[in-house]
């Protein structure tokens, strides 16, 4: 990147998540230097991107192209950026800053004809009002009331009616929807999400962010599929949180296993692979009455749903719930339906917490078929469940009995998409504002009609776009196993539907910016990962289109002999599905017009067998299952105080000892076990950094620490006691292996520098997928779709070493996690951070005032970048599709490798009798000479095989009027025998040539050539079978004019020739 662009890029990256810029973005036929989608702003830096005489005209045409797509353009010269960066930055910030909203004034809005506040609208802005708060933060002020109306005094050209405010309860309005010509009083999905969490936050609940889709604490789950998953250990009492009530908007995926909605998506009104579950939870705090009260008040008072549209169900024996619904909600008994355990009793498993539940249903009206819950027509779509309140009050035992829980709890779940449909007055989830935007974008990308026959395909694409994007944002990539396989299946189903709409090139990746615009506010990981998501989807689409073409060819070959009424075997259909990514329904569609059916039962059997194999190989997810022992120790002892940032030695008291997973009072000489102390300088393995080693000593006692781990804040030192014994309550001294720790520190700091250098050289899509920081080397896995060139590798290494040479201090600051992220610090998605985090910055400060590299990190680091010494990349490879790995050495190890390489080059120069600078040139010359010699040798062997160069007298014999050349050859490579046969065919003009090569291993290779004028009579592919049989082999094959085969008995070469002569 040219220096002016690089300098400006550092500034743009620090503007924060609300103004996410990307660089080198294609818009039509041109590339924009920098682009902010949200602000519809392009920034151009002139001087280096083009060298043409008509530069101003080129700039004008380019700007007009951007303007046609709705983008504003700011243009700066190189000199302006280099000499007046502060002024350039001020211009950009001014362009990004919208006029403020005028807040509501006290006392206004009660009169139906008086506005409660005025709203300024400015031209060209993409986001016309402050965004909804990110998911989990709750409302900034108040709670949104959907039927509260806002008067918006703007241009009459927008055809908006004037509305009023009855009670100003909400601090701002999402005017984007208004300007999209939707009802100004309709609550958007984003506002509804914020309204829910805001309501419960105002009622004393902790607003907890969504947990990742890849569960950390449940190895049995492939994906998070409910809001309570992240609280499972809290409900069971294994884990404690600093709050007793919580509210969340949880990301969920159901696309495999028990909860598999994939095949129904797009064909029903409410099935999704990705959905959001709104919920409120009580961990032994309030119970039934308060849960019912909170739910009823939100629905009927805050959201103002008509009471006569609501009905509830309860468990058949739950008289308490019946009484409470009457008391709190004033419902009559005919609006409360008692149902059995199948629908209204919830269990976490065969044993554990369980309890009755109460579901709230909404009536979509008599225009929709269906009956209320419990009726014969309950499966219809008229009455839709919108909220489930689970009352966890029992403990289920193995013998089937139940006892009361000492602290009953509440777990509720409300599907955001379902309730949004209710609040927006539509019956189908795909008609809510979020899906309308995604479907419109998909229709535009595929040139389809939203209301046309392809509507179902558009719905599939819109749904699957969400699940694939969120999974990729969390680091899941398409593959052939585990989560990656499920993701690939989702992606390819969407891609197949894109092809059904006529797409013949990658298309779905173009929809990612629309999704980011719709959901990036609530889920910033989408904005952060937009480039990575886009590129991953684009590449997978390219692969799919290729496999689709191959699959159609294979299908044609497999069914070439099948006529109307025939059946394609299930095994073949599954091979198409499994090997070529060719879905069963596409196979069925392709064969339907030919009257060929597919063996569905055989396909299902093959699929079931594969699933059984997958289950055998499934290793669980995320962290290991929650270990009751360590939760218990964490609860009893509290977290271990880590002193390792300041010191490598410390005195401590042994608080617990474990041998084979069980607590003991002592560990004797010769035994191994785990030691827990109140404070430690030993780093516990986490964040890719290995645990420390060292020694624990006391009077008469010495134990080697071979590893250190961390479980729920408790540090476990793995020890082998060499002399004496360790006892609970004993005072000990802990000493970390200094040299090993120093090497680890250098490697960890170098990892941060390489991460930033990779992003600068390869692009913003680079995201960490994993790392290993040990004493002898470092390994860094990251998202990138192609091998790194040697030139890029050298640039990455040079950039990292330039920061090392600055020898600036490595700064570590404690900050709030949100403050840290806003400062630009990079966070590893999926890593669990507390409220306060360590922010590690290296290199000279940039616009953020922190440093060149800024990351959230709890690891140990060098004091100054110069302490790393040197970083040397020693390898680059592919780990998985879309994931690359670099390995590197630092310090003494890097220097040793450099010295070794210098010695190797010097030795090579001596052997080549050249200077070290000419080694490469001499090797290249020798390689060329070797190639020439090999070609000459091959030519000589071919002439020898042809009988001394093909002189007259070796023209063969005539058999049945056909020229026949049969010869045993030696000294020819097996790969060259066909070219020798071709040469003989040309020499004789017309005839049959048989050459048999006797290999050094005793095996025989035979090649048969037939000139084109004789292939109708003698096919080489048929003749070859007799020749290979004579050699003791089977088969062989090829074209009518050329075939090759072989057998184990090369001594029978003449018999093979005779067999062909006999056939002629």
UniProtKB/TrEMBL annotation:
<dbReference type="Pfam" id="PF02272">
    <property type="entry name" value="DHHA1"/>
</dbReference>
<dbReference type="InterPro" id="IPR007569">
    <property type="entry name" value="DUF559"/>
</dbReference>
<dbReference type="InterPro" id="IPR023033">
    <property type="entry name" value="Ala_tRNA_ligase_euk/bac"/>
</dbReference>
<keyword id="KW-0175">Coiled coil</keyword>
<keyword id="KW-0694">RNA-binding</keyword>
<dbReference type="GO" id="GO:0045892">
    <property type="term" value="P:negative regulation of DNA-templated transcription"/>
</dbReference>
<dbReference type="InterPro" id="IPR050058">
    <property type="entry name" value="Ala-tRNA_ligase"/>
</dbReference>
<feature type="coiled-coil region">
    <location>
        <begin position="916"/>
        <end position="943"/>
    </location>
</feature>
<feature type="binding site">
    <location>
        <position position="752"/>
    </location>
    <ligand>
        <name>Zn(2+)</name>
    </ligand>
</feature>
<keyword id="KW-0479">Metal-binding</keyword>
<dbReference type="Pfam" id="PF07973">
    <property type="entry name" value="tRNA_SAD"/>
</dbReference>
<dbReference type="InterPro" id="IPR018162">
    <property type="entry name" value="Ala-tRNA-ligase_IIc_anticod-bd"/>
</dbReference>
<dbReference type="InterPro" id="IPR018163">
    <property type="entry name" value="Thr/Ala-tRNA-synth_IIc_edit"/>
</dbReference>
<keyword id="KW-0547">Nucleotide-binding</keyword>
<dbReference type="InterPro" id="IPR012947">
    <property type="entry name" value="tRNA_SAD"/>
</dbReference>
<dbReference type="GO" id="GO:0006419">
    <property type="term" value="P:alanyl-tRNA aminoacylation"/>
</dbReference>
<keyword id="KW-0436">Ligase</keyword>
<feature type="binding site">
    <location>
        <position position="857"/>
    </location>
    <ligand>
        <name>Zn(2+)</name>
    </ligand>
</feature>
<keyword id="KW-0067">ATP-binding</keyword>
<dbReference type="GO" id="GO:0005829">
    <property type="term" value="C:cytosol"/>
</dbReference>
<keyword id="KW-0862">Zinc</keyword>
<dbReference type="GO" id="GO:0008270">
    <property type="term" value="F:zinc ion binding"/>
</dbReference>
<dbReference type="InterPro" id="IPR002318">
    <property type="entry name" value="Ala-tRNA-lgiase_IIc"/>
</dbReference>
<dbReference type="InterPro" id="IPR045864">
    <property type="entry name" value="aa-tRNA-synth_II/BPL/LPL"/>
</dbReference>
<comment type="function">
    <text>Catalyzes the attachment of alanine to tRNA(Ala) in a two-step reaction: alanine is first activated by ATP to form Ala-AMP and then transferred to the acceptor end of tRNA(Ala). Also edits incorrectly charged Ser-tRNA(Ala) and Gly-tRNA(Ala) via its editing domain.</text>
</comment>
<keyword id="KW-0030">Aminoacyl-tRNA synthetase</keyword>
<keyword id="KW-0648">Protein biosynthesis</keyword>
<dbReference type="InterPro" id="IPR011335">
    <property type="entry name" value="Restrct_endonuc-II-like"/>
</dbReference>
<dbReference type="Pfam" id="PF01411">
    <property type="entry name" value="tRNA-synt_2c"/>
</dbReference>
<dbReference type="InterPro" id="IPR003156">
    <property type="entry name" value="DHHA1_dom"/>
</dbReference>
<keyword id="KW-0820">tRNA-binding</keyword>
<comment type="similarity">
    <text>Belongs to the class-II aminoacyl-tRNA synthetase family.</text>
</comment>
<feature type="domain" description="Alanyl-transfer RNA synthetases family profile">
    <location>
        <begin position="187"/>
        <end position="894"/>
    </location>
</feature>
<dbReference type="GO" id="GO:0004813">
    <property type="term" value="F:alanine-tRNA ligase activity"/>
</dbReference>
<dbReference type="GO" id="GO:0000049">
    <property type="term" value="F:tRNA binding"/>
</dbReference>
<dbReference type="GO" id="GO:0005524">
    <property type="term" value="F:ATP binding"/>
</dbReference>
<dbReference type="InterPro" id="IPR018164">
    <property type="entry name" value="Ala-tRNA-synth_IIc_N"/>
</dbReference>
<feature type="binding site">
    <location>
        <position position="748"/>
    </location>
    <ligand>
        <name>Zn(2+)</name>
    </ligand>
</feature>
<dbReference type="InterPro" id="IPR047216">
    <property type="entry name" value="Endonuclease_DUF559_bact"/>
</dbReference>
<keyword id="KW-0963">Cytoplasm</keyword>
<dbReference type="InterPro" id="IPR009000">
    <property type="entry name" value="Transl_B-barrel_sf"/>
</dbReference>
<dbReference type="Pfam" id="PF04480">
    <property type="entry name" value="DUF559"/>
</dbReference>
